[in-house]
Each structure stands twice: as C-alpha cells, then as structure tokens.
Write a structure and sequence with these properties.
Elements lengths: L5 H13 L13 H5 L2 H12 L2 H14 L5 E2 L2 E2 L3 H14 L4 H13 L1 H25 L3 H41 L2 H26 L6 H13 L4 H33 L1
Antiparallel strand pairs: 1-2
Length: 266
C-alpha cells in the first residue's frame, strides 16, 4: 500500500463514475459517457491525476485503439469500456507506465470485473425502478425523486468509484509482485500481445467502415503520407476531409445521372 496513490486512485474512481452512461453531471451522455468515458480522454485525465500526462495519453491511445470498434447492442456488451479505461490505465501508471501493460490490464478488467459490476448495476437499477414505479402509483413525488434520481446515482458511485479506487490503491503491490515473479518470457509475450491488440482494434474498425475494396486505397494512401511524407494527423485530417468532399460531389453527380437514366428506361 502506498499513501501517495490515495489521491490519484480517488480521482480515477470519480472520473470512472462521471464517465458512466447514466451520470447527469456533464451534460448527460454527451459529456460523460461519450467524452470522459472514452479511453483516450481517460488517459489524459489519469495522466493529470498521476502527474504524468505523456504516459497517460500514450496508455490511453493504446487502449482506445483496442476498443475503437467495440459495440454494445441494447443491454449486451462484451466489455465495459469505462472500467477497462480507468482501471487499466490507472494501474498501469501506478506500476510500469507501459502502454502494452495498460492494454493487457484494460482487457482483463473490462471483460471480467467490468462486466460483473455492469450487470450488478442493471440488477440494482431494476430494484430502484420498481420502487419508483410504486411511488408513482401513489403520486409520491418525493419517493419518485429518491428512487429515480438520488438512490441510483449513489448506487452508481459506489459500484464504479469504489472498485476502481480499491483496484489502483491496493492493486499496485499485487501487479508489481506478479510482474517481478513471472519469467521474463511471459512479460515479454504480454508486452508483444499488448502492442498487437491496438492493430486488431483498427482492423475491426476497418471491417465495419470499409464497404468496398476500393476504399482501402484511401486507407493505404493515408498510411503512406504519414509514414513516408512525414505528415501529422492534423494535416491528414484536412486532406481526408478534402478527398471525402470531392468523392461526395462526384458520387452525388453520378447518382443523379443514374436516376435520370432509370427514369428514361421506365
């Protein structure tokens, strides 16, 4: 146990709560789940909490790449991204500050403890929803507020902030012991796999976004410009936006011509 970790662990727990999909404090889902809950933003915030923004952003970037194609359908999800981000990046900054370790821990935490607490939260919410429904049937305004707003938020805070705080504050020693006790070949393998997983996330995103093989030309064109022309991401964004606009205009003209031809055939 390290007393210096108390404040960073506490801040990470609070950030994990603010990144929940049901917290209203940062303009609802817009500022909470879709901004604070993203691994890249989590890396920045955790880096600020630990006083090492560069290491935090690097870890956040690696974790974001892994989860960039993560999809949730209804109430089903294969990993809880907010637990994964703040738990994985937080414990990584408390130990090795290695992005590969952050990725490995984020996947482990998101797909185990994250899903357990995610489903626990939904079970607890069904209890509060029943009580709020009963209060509404009695026209009990105070009961509705307590069971629909206050108690669920308190439940969410304890389910999210407390586990992340405990994980970072008490988990550093365990992770250090684990890293120091296992053979070097195992840690090297974990580092290699952790470095490969972001590429897997990008590949999954490409399988969703790219609908035609010709679209791969734009991807490889951007890769070549970055790798060999030395352009940064901002320059690539402007070039990509210009190309997208040109393609949009050309596709729209072609679409109109096709419609006119089809009208003539009919």
């Amino acid at each position: 146990m390290n007393g210096a970790l108390f404040l960073p662990a506490l801040l990470c727990g609070i950030f994990c709560y603010l990144g929940a999909i049901e917290t209203p404090w940062l303009f609802g889902m817009t500022g909470g789940f879709y901004i604070v809950g993203r691994p890249l933003v989590a890396g920045l915030l955790v880096g600020l909490a630990f006083g090492d923004v560069q290491a935090g952003v690097l870890c956040g970037l690696a974790v974001q790449a892994v989860f960039i194609a993560n999809l949730s359908t209804g109430g089903a999800t294969n990993s809880e991204i907010t637990y994964a981000a703040y738990g994985g990046i937080g414990i990584a900054l408390a130990t090795t500050k290695d992005p590969a370790i952050a990725v490995t821990l984020a996947i482990l935490i998101g797909q185990t403890f994250g899903l357990i607490f995610y489903n626990t939260r939904m079970a607890v919410y069904s209890y509060w929803n029943k009580r709020a429904d009963d209060a509404a049937s009695r026209i009990d305004t105070r009961g509705i507020y307590l069971n629909h707003v206050l108690y669920p938020q308190i439940s969410t805070f304890f389910i999210r902030a407390v586990p992340i705080f405990i994980l970072i504050f008490f988990g550093k020693g365990f992770v250090d012991m684990l890293i120091n006790s296992v053979p070097a070949v195992v840690t090297d393998t974990i580092s290699v796999l952790g470095g490969v997983l972001p590429a897997l996330g990008i590949a999954m995103l490409m399988s969703i976004v790219i609908k035609e093989k010709v679209n791969l030309l734009f991807f490889f064109g951007g890769f070549v410009l970055m790798a060999f022309a030395g352009l940064n991401m901002i320059a690539l964004v402007f070039i990509a936006a210009l190309i997208a606009y040109i393609v949009y205009l050309s596709t729209g003209s072609t679409g109109g011509a096709v419609i006119e031809e089809e009208d003539e055939v009919i």
